[in-house]
Amino acid sequence: MDVDPELGEGTPMILEQYYIECLSHASYLIGDEATGRAIVVDPRRDIDEYLADATRYGLTIEGVINTHFHADFVSGHLELVEATGAWIGFGKAAETDYPIRRLADGEHISLGQVDLEILSTPGHTWESISVLVREHPGAEPTAVLTGDSMFIGDVGRPDLVNIGNSSTSDLARAMYHTIHDKLLKLSDDVTVMPAHGAGSSCGKNLSTELTSTIGEQRRTNPSVQPMSEDDFVELITHGQPAAPAYFSVDAAMNKRVHPLLEQSRAIPALSPAQVRRALSDGVRVMDARSVDDFAARHLRGSVNVGFDGRFAETGGMVAEIGETIALITYPDQEQDAALRLARVGSDNAVGYLNVDRGGEFPAELSDLVEASTRVTPTELDGLLAEDAVVLVDIRNPGEVEQGRIPGSVNIPLAQLRNRLDMLPTDRPIVVHCAGGWRSSVAASLLRAQGFDDVWDLAGGYNAWLAEHAMA
Predict the structure, then answer these.
(1) Fewest Cβ atoms nearer than 10 Å: which of 63, 124, 127, 139?
(2) By the 8 A CB rule, do 146 and 66 touch?
(3) Would you say 372 and 295 are in contact if contact means Cβ atoms under 8 Å apart?
(4) Single pTM value for the model
């Protein structure tokens, strides 16, 4: 949870930001301390933190606003309705199979003195809205919750899978007017509080800063500088990261009634025999240990998605939503790993096996333990000179534009599972990313999918570039 002590200071306004790194996701609690009324904006599925803070402040959560149909995670609006009886608000263009409050442009929601104004801000999706926050009616706005419209350092992409049949160009043009005719019309001192930060696939240049101001974005955000509408469309439709396939599943889940997340659920420990059976039955065994520990020893058929990286989003890339998952984790990380997967809709983690850092697998599984093959940049150059391997670059298109290893084929990690037919089965494959984390995911995924001879480049493109810079 992140709190800006200056927001609401000396007034009854409460404005809390909750940020989770593994999804680069921000959600918000807005309340009026005098009346005890509150709204949650863009919640995640595990809602205990919102409920605890509401209790701490003496607030009643009476509404849940989603700024749009999120594609990168499953929103917690249904969980909050179950817990509090709150209404659910969306922009007027939203269509759902559960009751919603349709929020119109210019509509005000009073929490007492604290006033919320809805701004229609299409561009990322047609139903997208932003929430303008005032400490009391008629006051200058204090903050604007921009959802996926304006980010810190960028704007929301218009090409994700939750945009229905609308063309990317139409949404990009809508975003141009949202930015220039709505958000940049606000005063420079209005605090900008978006739904995502750096690392999110919902944009390409997001900052690590979690809040900013309209004035600062006006000065520093390259996507909101004065330019023609056509130039803007070209800018925001080019070089976006590959969208994971699960985005379309999550966007659809957020439009319909679906099973709720059990807030106190805990997955059980698995015996070595159960892990062996899971592997033989085709269960997705996801190993959340570090790249180095996985490379040294792992179970044949397991996929490395390190808990120290973008575990939730990457887990959604390597396992279908709804697929049964068994986890291999360090001690005390198993429950958090299962929760992170549940945030993207993967509720079927059935259990875990713990392995200590640098430790060994149980003796009963020793016949399944193997090591990864990793190559150095020098070794890779030799293999490429002999045309002995196929080199697959799993970075995003924008990264590749900044430089690439000659002879490589680009298949972004988010698309790899659906483009396996592009890869040869009769030649060794070397995969690489920027630094080695994603390539461990990709190499292990390919081996689990039946590719026998797959290596990854130690240190990734950065190591290869550094070695060539010294040559």
Answers:
(1) 139
(2) no
(3) yes
(4) 0.92
Instruction: Write out the residue range of the structural domain in which residue 95 sits.
Output: 2-253
pLDDT band at 394 (very low <50, low <70, confident <90, very high): very high
Examine the domain organization and report whether 353 and 379 are in the same domain.
no
Strand partners, 352: 269, 327
Respond yes or no: is residue 433 known to be catalytic: yes
What b/e string do you get for 67-88 counting C-beta neighbours within 10 Å, with b at 16 or more? bbbbbbbbbbbbbbbebbebeb
157-167 pLDDT per residue, tens? 998 854 445 57
The residues, any chain, with a CB within 8 Å of residue 78's CB and separated by 6 or more, are 98, 257, 258, 260
Residue in this structure with the two tokens 């190559």, named with its chain if needed: 375
Tell me if residue 239 falls in helix, strand or coil: coil
Question: How many domains does the chain fold into?
Answer: 3
SS (H, E, C) 334-348: HHHHHHHHHHCCCCC
253-298 confidence digits (pLDDT tens): 999 999 999 999 999 999 999 999 999 999 999 999 999 999 999 9
In the numeric block, which tokens belong to residue 464? 């290869």
**DSSP letter at 197?**
-
Given a contact cutoff of 8 angstroms between Cβ atoms, the answer to whether 394 and 439 are in contact is yes
Q: Is residue 264 part of a domain?
A: no
Residue 199, pLDDT score: 79
* Residue 266 included in any domain: no
Residue range 304-350, pLDDT digits in tens: 999 999 999 999 999 999 999 999 999 999 999 999 999 999 999 99
Phi–psi pair at 74, nearest 5 degrees: -90, 120
Residue 130 lies in a domain: yes
Q: How many C-beta neighbours within 10 Å does residue 273 have?
A: 11
Beta bridge partners of 18: 27
Among the options 433, 434, 448, 458, which is catalytic?
Answer: 433
